[in-house]
Design goal:
Helix content of chain A: 10-25%
Strand order of the largest sheet of chain B: 3-4-5-6-9-10-13
Distance between the termini of chain A: 47 Å
Largest sheet of chain B: 7 strands, mixed
Radius of gyration of chain B: 24 Å
CATH class of one domain in chain B: Alpha Beta
Number of strands of chain B: 13
Distance between the termini of chain B: 88 Å
Oligomer: heterodimer
CATH superfamily of one domain in chain B: 2-enoyl-CoA Hydratase, Chain A, domain 1
CATH topology of one domain in chain B: 2-enoyl-CoA Hydratase, Chain A, domain 1
Strand content of chain B: 15-25%
Structural class of chain B: alpha/beta
CATH architecture of one domain in chain B: Alpha-Beta Complex
Strand order of the largest sheet of chain A: 1-2-3-4-5-6-7-9-10-11
Order of helices and strands of chain B: HHHHHEEHHEEEHEHEEEHEEEEHH
Shape of chain B: globular
Helix content of chain B: 25-40%
Chain lengths: 278, 334
């Protein structure tokens, strides 16, 4: 029950803060991006197997970014929903891992423009993720649950330039979780035992030394026509932990493609709109 | 600021890659990988060092010298299976494409104390079947239940119907001889019909680290009474050395219930819930990972002694009689 309480508290907290920010920022342009991607997946979870697994990963990414009124309209708010599904095999091709994860991050960045075509953003936020990794050969240890939440540091840089006459936005972003907690069974604890309510330090404190993770994305936004902006990019998502003597890594490198749409609420001024666009 | 960046970079470099040691897919690499899996994850190394003098480090030295790079797959399998047999554990297996390595001495080295044909004679042809249970009322008004595998499912409704049908019997025989285990849920579900109150039946623990002695505190296991039909009369559970794993747990639970005795031989044991892992060549290894204990916090890995020891006698077999069933009937009639 206590795990559930943690999760509910966290989700409600993040949701409350996000809604509050949305209300705060309702006079600005909203940029919505949707992208899907495919790439390589590298999995290790020593609770299931000491062997490395590698294969394919599919990503779905939904992102919203908008300026807020905070600090003289220099703070932007970004929300990221990500779904990831992986299929990987061990080196001998004798076993398969199926993985799935959904995550949400709410981030705030301080913006400044040191040059006319360059915007730098530094900030942080909070996020939560849930998922699983299932091994096709496991007996009483066939799967591992993923559940965690963290606060993270984040940096972003956006550079605008013209390419073949088109205004292209290049963006790099990196998010580094610095403090959080995650669920983990003990080294040899069965989910049967956990299911019966015998918990044993299964919610663990995380920080970069025991759970170094890094989310990085490089995108290029290319306008094609008046309303359609194409997004192509590379997503490097590294999640790792060494908790309760269980080692885990989930690394993926994906090519992303999608589109971006900018919305300005009716009745709002051009001045508000310019706050977001570089 | 420079110092902060330096600290941050040091932290990142220390923690940047979390990997597990990967062994080569060679005979030596696979043997080392197997030895390490057992060394870190197997839950009875300390207990078996005390009971049977197992020294896992000594085992390594003895078997690694038999492994060389030019050996065939079947030769490697044989060496690794022999190494695993040192654990004397029926829950330890090596699954390869060609064979399943196993240790069955826990039952093969002892009398079976059962004759399947004779047991079938007691059931006759008109027995009833409810889930994995076969049952009937014997001529002397003793209820007789046979449950040969806890892998065969049974629901609350099945058990309630069985006990309701047998409600007028003088006593009940539950024959789990030859039941090598299966789902713990079914074992607990059946035993919950033999107590009217919540009772302590044992303990369990799990490994908290790779060291041989790194275990959690024991956590108590309680048996909750079923909310449907509960048996209130004497019951005898027939056991032999083939009662293993979930059946071992069933017998442990039943011995904590009032009016229940066991008759026959020791159970086979198998009190470690098995986990699986794998070798670089893809072979799967199963091993005991989470130990269970009885209510006195004692290991039951090597079996549970019967309340009433009894052996199947050859002269009874010659007459088509089952010594254990007859002894249980006599006790229940009294």
């Amino acid at each position: 029950m206590s795990i559930l309480r943690y999760i509910i508290t966290l989700v409600v907290s993040i949701g409350t803060v996000s809604v509050a920010t949305a209300q705060e920022t309702s006079d600005s342009i909203h940029s919505h991006a949707f992208a899907v991607g495919i790439g390589s997946s590298h999995q290790l979870d020593t609770y299931l197997s000491p062997q490395n697994y590698s294969g394919l990963q599919i990503n779905i990414l939904r992102e919203t970014i908008r300026m807020t009124r905070m600090v003289q309209r220099r703070i932007s708010f970004q929300s990221i929903w990500q779904g990831a599904f992986s299929h990987s095999q061990n080196a001998s091709q004798s076993a398969t891992d199926w993985g799935g994860r959904i995550s949400y991050d709410a981030l705030w960045h301080y913006n400044w423009t040191p040059a006319r075509n360059l915007r730098l953003m530094v900030g942080g936020g909070a996020g939560a993720d849930a998922g699983f990794l299932y091994n096709s050969r496991g007996g009483n240890n066939p799967a591992q649950a993923r559940l965690g939440a963290d606060i993270s540091a984040s940096i972003m840089a956006i550079y605008k330039f013209k390419c073949l006459g088109l205004p292209v936005n290049i963006r790099y972003q990196a998010n580094l979780p610095v403090l959080g907690f995650m669920f983990s069974p003990q080294f040899g604890q069965s989910y049967y035992e956990i299911g019966e309510g015998h918990l044993n330090n299964n919610i663990c404190f995380t920080y970069p030394l025991n759970a170094f993770s890094l989310w990085q994305q490089i995108t290029a936004d290319i306008p094609l026509g008046k309303k359609f902006v194409l997004r192509v990019g590379y997503l490097c998502d590294i999640k790792q932990s060494h908790i309760n003597h269980i080692k885990m890594h989930d690394r993926s490198h994906s090519f992303m493609i999608g589109f971006v749409r900018h919305f300005r609420l009716i009745g709002k001024s051009e001045r508000d709109s310019k706050a977001l666009i570089l | 600021m420079k110092r902060l960046i330096l600290i941050l970079l040091t932290m990142l470099s220390i923690s940047s890659c979390i990997n597990e040691e990967q062994f080569d897919n060679t005979p030596e690499g696979n043997a080392e990988a197997l030895w390490k899996i057992i060394d870190q994850h197997y839950c009875f190394l300390d207990y078996k060092a005390e009971k049977i003098g197992l020294d896992w480090n000594e085992v390594r030295g003895r078997y690694m010298s038999q492994v060389h790079k030019n050996m065939s797959s079947s030769q490697l399998r044989e060496v690794l299976c022999n190494m695993l047999s040192e654990l004397r554990d029926g829950h330890v297996n090596l699954y390869t494409a060609a064979d399943v390595g196993r240790y069955w001495a826990w039952k093969d080295d002892y009398p079976r104390n059962i004759n399947d044909d004779i047991r079938n004679n007691y059931l006759g042809n008109d027995y009833r079947i409810a889930g994995g249970i076969r049952y009937r009322i014997l001529d002397d008004n003793i209820g007789y239940i046979v449950y040969t595998s806890f892998s065969s499912g049974i629901g609350e409704g099945n058990i309630a119907e069985v006990l309701h049908y047998l409600r007028l019997c003088t006593g009940l025989i539950i024959d789990v001889r030859g039941n090598g285990g299966g789902q713990l849920d079914y074992a607990e579900r059946l035993s919950s019909h033999f107590t009217n109150e919540r009772i302590l039946v044992g303990y369990r623990s799990h490994k908290t680290g790779p060291g041989h002695s790194e275990f959690s505190e024991l956590s108590a296991e309680y048996l909750e009474p079923s909310s449907t039909v509960r048996w209130q009369k004497p019951a005898i559970v027939l056991t032999n050395r083939e009662c293993y794993s979930a059946t071992n747990t069933f017998v442990r639970n039943m011995l904590c219930c009032p009016q229940v005795k066991t008759l026959g031989d020791y159970t086979g044991g198998g009190s470690g819930m098995p986990f699986t892992s794998e070798l670089p060549n893809g072979w799967l290894v199963r091993f005991s990972a989470c130990p269970q204990y009885d209510k006195h916090q004692q290991h039951i890995e090597f079996g549970i002694p019967p309340t009433i020891p009894c052996e199947l006698k050859a002269e009874d077999v010659a007459k088509g009689k089952d010594t254990l069933i007859e002894a249980a009937r006599k006790l229940l009639r009294e």
